[in-house]
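TA notes, week 10

Several of you asked for a full example with nothing omitted. So below is the full record: structure tokens for the whole chain, then the designed sequence directly under it. When grading your own attempts, check the secondary structure regions first.
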């Protein structure tokens, strides 16, 4: 989903994924098909490389939309699940992050663009994680 540069962000993402998993297990909004995995590699690359600015391909509809928009659209369905798990604050943080479209992956790309140095990019991202 994004490149978390803080423990808090990583925890928010983990809580979001936990609520999403609960929603999928209890609500069963669709049944996964073997062909769904055809877009998995694309979606994973987009999320890892571009974070919230990446594109998401819906496996059933084969439509593209920004990852941030997809996250925002699913947040309402996750509210009762986050509530049951005690993670409403984390879900609110994820929604706000998606609405701002200012995730950590974007920050890493800005560092690299400014410094043009992998070493400096890694040093600054490690500093972010350590603080």
């Amino acid at each position: 989903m994004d490149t978390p540069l803080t423990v808090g962000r990583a925890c928010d993402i983990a809580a979001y994924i936990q609520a999403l998993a609960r929603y999928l297990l209890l609500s069963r909004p669709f049944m996964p098909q073997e062909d769904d995995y055809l877009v998995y590699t694309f979606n994973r690359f987009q999320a890892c490389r571009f974070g919230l600015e990446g594109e998401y391909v819906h496996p059933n509809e084969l439509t593209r939309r920004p990852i941030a928009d997809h996250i925002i659209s699913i947040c309402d369905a996750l509210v009762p699940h986050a509530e049951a798990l005690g993670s409403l604050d984390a879900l609110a943080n994820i929604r706000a992050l998606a609405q701002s479209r200012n995730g950590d992956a974007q920050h890493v790309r800005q560092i690299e663009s400014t410094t043009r140095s992998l070493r400096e990019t890694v040093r600054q991202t490690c500093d972010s994680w350590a603080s």
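The mean pLDDT is 90. Use that as a sanity check on your answer.
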